[in-house]
Structure formats: C-alpha cells, structure tokens
Amino acid sequence: MTTTDDFRAAAAAVTAPANDNAAPAVSISPDKQLLDAVEKGDIEAARDALTAGASIDARDELQTTPLMIAVFAKNAAMVHFLLANKADVLAERSSEGALHLAARADVPEITETLLHHGAGAHLMLATKNNKMTPLHIAAMTGSEDAARQLMQAGAAVNYRGENYMSAVDVAAQAGNVDIIRMLVIDGQADLRGAREGQGFDPMYYAIAGKHIEAVKELLRLGSDPLKTDPDMPTLTPLGQAAAAGEAEIVKLFLALPDGTYNYERLGHALGQAELNQKAATIGLLEDAMRDYVIKNRPAPQAPAYDPGI
User: Fold this and answer.
1) What is the CB neighbour count within 10 angstroms for residue 271?
2) Alpha helices in the chain (DSSP H)
3) How far apart are CA 203 and CA 209, in angstroms?
4) Which of 54, 75, 58 is nearest to 66 (CA)?
5) Other CB atoms closer than 10 Å to residue 94's CB: what's the count?
6) From the first residue on, what is the mean pLDDT of each consecutive set of 10 residues in the chain (309 residues)?
C-alpha cells in the first residue's frame, strides 16, 4: 500500500532543484577496471577492461600486476586467462615475481602453469627484502607441492642467498618437518650449514625456533649433534638448547647414546645455561654430569692375592 511518506519522497525527488555543486562522476581507467576485476575474480569484467584498452600488465599503487593478484588469490582460472592474453610471467615487484607468490599459495595447477609459461627463469631470483627464492618461500610456508614442483623444475636446493640460509635452514627455522624430510631425502640438502663463519646449520635454526619435532627429524636424517660454529667452538646443539632454556630439547640430546656428550661437553652446556640463568636446564645438566661421573667411575680393584696371608 502506498503511504503519504512515499508520495512525499517521490515529489521531493521530482521537484528538488539541481545541485550545480555536485561532484562529477569519477571515471575509472581501464587499467583500474582490470585490477579490480582480477581482485574480484570476475573474468568477464577483466575481458571487458582489456577490450576498453587496459594493459595486461597494469600496476596498482603497490606495483602489483593482475597476474600477481590472481596468483595470490589462488585463482587458477584467472591465471590461465591472463597468461592467454600475454601477461608478463616475469614481471617483478621488489625482485618478487608470480612464481614467488605461487610458492606461498601452493596450488599445483598455478605453479605448473607459470612454469610452463617460462617462470622458471625466476627459480633463483631472491626477493629484495628477505633474500628468498621461490624454494625458500615454499620451505618457510610449508608448501609441499610447490617445493616438490620447484625442485623438479631445477631449483638449487643448497643455494644460499645474502643471508646465508638454504631452503632446509628456512624449513628448520619454521619447524616444517615434512619439508625438511623432502629437501634432504629427495633434494640431497646439505645439513652441514654454510661455509665457515657465514651462517649456521639447520639444527641451529630448529633449536632457535624451539621446534623439537624438527630437531628429532634432523637427528634422524643424520645431523651432527656435536657440530659447533667456528666462532663458538665449544657451543654444541646441546649448549644452544641449554642457553635457550629448552628443557625438552636438552632431554632429547641427553638421551642420545652414551659417549655423545662427554663430561667436558656437558660442562660447557651447563656453563651456557648458567650464563643465561636457565634454571630448568641447569638442573638437567647438573644431574647429567653427576650421572656421567657415576657411570665412568673406575671400578674398585680387588686386593692382590697374597699366598702368605
């Protein structure tokens, strides 16, 4: 039913004087239309924007291209559409390309499509900010499918950028156990760490990240529990865990076969715990040193037989 208020509103709309000060309608450029359409996942609107003259490699205020937006959104159909329209698969933003974003997205179809269109040229491109290649990013984010695809495409597993970290170092720091296993078993990742004085090994990063499962996996894969850094020749993984107050990781190392940590090494680890005032690990190491002394105390010798007695 029509009300008086409805009539008043209609009359007001008809009789209201024109507002000469009204802001003119804002015209959206074809490039902006394309960027918006890709962000919304609207392929038809994206096609219309291209017909209107949009550049397939238009950039937003962050220098992101439509292809990068589609990869980030995990929109495989849009990725296919843009590449079919000659999007630049090697366009960069702060030394980051679509393949870096695909490593994070972990959508096999997208990674495969990018590689098919030539994105493999970015396999060794390290980002400007954090110096990571696509494989580093996959290792950090736990993107197993992407990591496997990148390795198969030829990514250098043991490459270390300016921060001296390899992909397995990054995986250990993030605690991504499955990625660690894949990199070591399938990619022959080096567990020894960077060259002297320039970075640590995966075990160091796993302990620093407080990832006990990663520590267990690294030990299972053959990581050296006695490795030290050239700048800190007495700091073993046990000492590092003791200094960090990581009691469960300390217990893990103390449970290794007898002889792994001798009295001197236990003492160095205790010193690290005391220096950093970590009561939980101080007690564990004091007990370990006491047990070591008891186990290694020479057995009492029986008195020599004297037939004259």
Assistant:
1) 17
2) 4-15, 30-40, 43-51, 66-72, 76-84, 98-105, 108-116, 134-141, 144-152, 167-174, 177-185, 202-208, 212-220, 237-244, 247-254, 263-275, 279-295
3) 10
4) 58
5) 11
6) 42 44 69 98 98 98 97 98 98 94 98 98 91 96 98 95 90 98 96 69 95 98 89 90 97 93 96 96 97 84 60
Task: Count CA within 13 A, CB hemisphere, residue 2.
Answer: 5
Residue 93 phi, psi dihedral angles, 5° rounding? -140, 110
pLDDT the model gives residue 161: 78
Name the burial class of residue 270, with classes exposed (0-12), middle (13-18) and buried (19+) by CB atoms within 10 angstroms of its CB: buried
| The two three-digit tokens of residue 193, written as one number | 């760490």
Residue 307's φ and ψ, nearest 5 degrees, are -60, -15
**CA neighbor of 237 nearest in space, from 221, 218, 259, 220:** 218
Q: Are 115 and 151 in contact (CB under 8 A)?
A: no
* Per CATH, domain 29-86 is 3.40.50.2020: no
The C-alpha angle 213, 103, 205, rounded to 5 degrees, equals 30
CA separation for the pair 220, 180 (Å, rounded) = 11
CATH no., domain 89-224? 1.25.40.20
**What does R_g of the chain's alpha carbons equal in angstroms?**
31
Distance CA 257, CA 155 (A): 37
Would you state the pLDDT for residue 20?
Answer: 54
Kindly list the distances between the CA atom of residue 299 and the CA atoms of 17, 124, 293, in Å, as whole numbers in the listed order.
110, 60, 12
CA gap 258, 93 in Å, rounded: 53
Find out whether 199 and 160 touch, Cβ atoms under 8 Å.
yes
